[in-house]
Amino acid sequence: MTTLLALIGRVFLTFVRTVGRFSLFTGLAVSHMVRPPLYPRLIVRQMIEIGYYSLPVVGLTTLFSGMVLALQSHLGFARFSAEGAVATVVVISLTRELGPVLAGLMVAGRIGAAMAAEIGTMRVTEQIDALSTLSTNPFKYLVAPRLIAGLTMLPLLVLVGDIIGVFGGYLIGTTKLGFNPGTYIARTVEFLQIMDVVSGLVKAAAFGFVIALMGCYHGYHSKGGAQGVGAATTNAVVSASILILILNYVITELFFAQ
Amino acid sequence: MTPRPPDTEPKLRLRDVRKRFGAQMVLDGIDLDVMPGESLVVIGGSGSGKSVLLKCILGLLRPDAGSIVIDGAETVGLDGRARDRVNAHLGMLFQGAALFDSLPVWQNVAFGLIQGRHTRNRAEARERAMACLAQVGLRPEVADLVPSELSGGMQKRVGLARAIATRPDIVFFDEPTTGLDPIMADVINDLIVATTKDLGATALSITHDMASATKIADRIAMLYRGRLIWVGPAKQVFESGNAHVDQFVHGRADGPITDETDKTPARSGR
Ligand SMILES: Nc1ncnc2c1ncn2[C@@H]1O[C@H](COP(=O)(O)OP(=O)(O)OP(=O)(O)O)[C@@H](O)[C@H]1O
Ligand SMILES: [Mg+2]
User: Fold this and answer.
1) Which residue CA neighbors atom 9 of ligand 1 most closely?
2) How does this protein lie in the membrane (chain A) (predicted)?
3) Strand B219-224 vs strand B202-207: parallel, antiparallel, or unpaired?
4) Fewest CB within 10 angstroms: A25, A109, B22, B159, which?
């Protein structure tokens, strides 16, 4: 009985310690994001890494999602003769949900893992210690550029992804489902509201921040050689993915409440 | 109290520095003075806490108790900008070199110069870096390679060049010669002696290589079970009269030092 209590106590303490450490990390990271000096060169490099090199992955994901959405919604709506709604359904689901979530998850796998591995390796080979001895703050040099790049690049990626996805739906709609190209495009823009797109981009920014934060946090606190870096990488991807799904709900709820 | 003349003021002063990891007492009250221009070497077995000692001084680890005074100013607990200002006067060669593997060699060496705004522009920083590389005996072609393309000995040299590039007042060397062949080790020893003399810097080195210790040290201190059990002139290390030091410097298996990895906390002082 006492061992059980001790166990619960220990788990609780670990939990509190982790939450504390994480909050401290986030606070410090954000404070270095908004305080000069910044490193433009490093920010640009991260932006290219996150934005440009993720384009193929995000583009392919949204392209096929748009295509399958068109097929499935056509199938569903045909049952009550509402095939006309296909274009609208495709664009709304993409901009509000699928664009940001799918892009977020793909980028989490690609970028979150890479960040955790890179920073984790720097931690275990004492490169982060070396930064401090060279009067360079690791938060400013390593963490802030990644957070800024994540925050700004994900919305751009999602915007491009949305367009590619809509194009995927258009391809299927016009070639397989027999829509007139002009009508399809008209239907796409007709019922689209600015809020659909904006809420998706807000989500994307939040996801980008979370992905970079998780990559940096787990990398920064990794210990114990190659195995520790491996664990950090896994944790970064898993925690970022879960947080993306939770945040997705929370942000949707917030936008609906208005 | 009359103020003492400045050159008798220690560059680095440690008082009762303590550090433990969980139940394991690593540093159990370290007192140490290093005078300006002096080269002090800390010897001690593997896992005796030598690297931890350096990391406490550099502010990478926070000691549980005690005081670390650099140039007359307390540094324990300094953070952010204040710590950066202190570190700007320090140089460190890490045990594993710890070169930034995303940057070419010359940018590694110039890192402190560029970040610390010691130079006006990158071209000047590169020039200074090339001079430092030449000083540690590396050819200019090396400058544009990345660290993973270098041998261990070359990485150590680059680490050395990086440590001295900003012309620090105090340089720390963590096992500068481990993992090197005897000739390369001696070359590095000579470099350390030459560069610290050249900079007029104070040096605090760590090693368990006695050849290296006697070559670079003015004074030697031995760390054992969390305490400095012997401190004295380098020449006297072989006739210290201390059984632990004797055993260590002669590398004998039998003697008072039994098992360095012994996890029993060293006489817990608190
Ligand atoms: N961050 C840490 N967390 C927990 N324990 C640590 C940490 N750093 C060092 N230690 C422990 O402190 C002790 C001293 O480590 P340290 O690295 O200072 O040894 P060392 O004297 O430099 O040895 P070596 O000559 O092999 O480099 C070791 O037992 C190590 O397990
Ligand atoms: Mg060590």
Assistant:
1) B52
2) Multi-pass membrane protein
3) unpaired
4) B22
Query: Could you read off the pLDDT of B75-117 as tens digits, one per residue?
Result: 888 887 888 888 888 999 998 889 999 899 999 999 988 887 6
Estimate the crossing angle of helix A55-78 against helix A99-107, to 10 degrees: 140
Strand partners, B30: B17
A220's enclosing H/E stretch is helix A194-220
Q: Which amino acid, A119?
A: I
Residue B162 forms contact with A (CB below 8 Å): yes
ipTM, two decimals: 0.85
Q: Whose CA is nearest to atom 19 of ligand 1?
A: B47
B269 has pLDDT over 70: no
Residue type, B33: D
pLDDT at res. A169: 92
Number of structural domains in chain A: 1
| Residue found by looking up tokens 């982790």 in the block | A18
CA–CA separation, A104 and A240 (whole Å): 9
In a domain, A19, yes or no: no
A127 to B58: CB separation less than 8 angstroms, yes or no: no
Domain of A127, in residue numbers: 41-256
Q: How many CA atoms lie within 13 A of B24 on its CB side?
A: 10
- Alpha-carbon distance of A42 to A22, in angstroms, equals 24
Domains of chain B: 1-89+170-270 (3.40.50.300), 101-167 (no CATH)
DSSP H helices in chain B:
50-57, 80-87, 105-115, 122-135, 152-165, 182-199, 210-216, 243-250
* CA torsion angle B173 B175 B181 B187 (round to 10): 20
A202 in a domain, yes or no?
A: yes
Q: For an interface test with B, which of A135, A137, A140, A229 has the most B Cβ atoms less than 10 Å from its Cβ?
A: A135
Q: Quick one: how far is CA B96 from the chain centroid?
A: 12
Q: Please tell me the predicted confidence (pLDDT) of residue B145.
A: 92
Cβ within 8 Å of A, B 92-131: 92, 94-96, 98-102, 111-112, 115-116
Nearest to B238 by CA among B205, B259, B211, B258: B211
* pLDDT tens string B149-196: 998 888 988 999 999 888 898 999 999 888 778 887 888 898 888 878
Q: Is residue A96 part of a domain?
A: yes
* DSSP structure string for B199-267: HT-EEEEEES-HHHHHHH-SEEEEEETTEEEEEEEGGGGGG---HHHHHHHHT-SSSS---TT--SPSS
CA distance B93 to B97: 6
